[in-house]
Amino acid sequence: MKSTKYVVTSPDSDVLPSDIALRIYELGLEINVKETCFGVIIDGEEEDVSATVEEVRKMDESNIFIKDRGFSPGDPRRCRGHRGGGARPGFYMMQHESEILPLISRGLTSEARGEDPPAGVEAKRRPTLEELEAMINEEFS
């Protein structure tokens, strides 16, 4: 089965999209690679894509992120060449996500070092089923 994924780098990463593409080519797997301003899009058989993702993440574990993509590169439903130009659907969301990646990267690096969260930062927890039911009952009573 085919799989398509974005490999997105944090703006703080020293790894460039071209570095990622070169590493993918070195793996010698049947993977299509398309460089983008955010990273690369990879497309191929699911097991090859999974193996590729594992290897690419090793390049910079806290600054390389993987995101599923529903369409392969060049798909006429998404390709700007077939749609008459302009930003593709989802571009602005990807742009926003890319801007917050440095914050996520710093958190992952801090956690990998075993550092405690900054003072005053409290971990959020999900409500229990009972607490959720109580909230719903309170809202509708």
Q: How would you sum up this structure in a few lines?
A:
With 141 residues, this protein is of the alpha+beta class.
In total, the number of strands is: 4
Strand order of the largest sheet: 2-3-1-4
Number of domains: 1
Portion in strands: 15-25%
How far apart, in Å, are the first and last alpha carbons? 50 Å
Give the uncertain stretches in residue-range form: none
CATH topology: Alpha-Beta Plaits
- Topology order in helix (H) and strand (E) letters: EHEEHEHHH
- Quaternary state of the chains: single chain
* Radius of gyration from CA coordinates: 19 Å
Task: Return the average pLDDT rounded to an integer.
Answer: 88
Reading off the top of the CATH hierarchy, the class is best stated as Alpha Beta
CATH architecture: 2-Layer Sandwich
**SS element count, helices:** 5
State the shape: extended
Find the structural class using helix and strand composition: alpha+beta
Query: Percent helix among the residues?
Result: 40-55%
How is the main sheet built?
4 strands, antiparallel
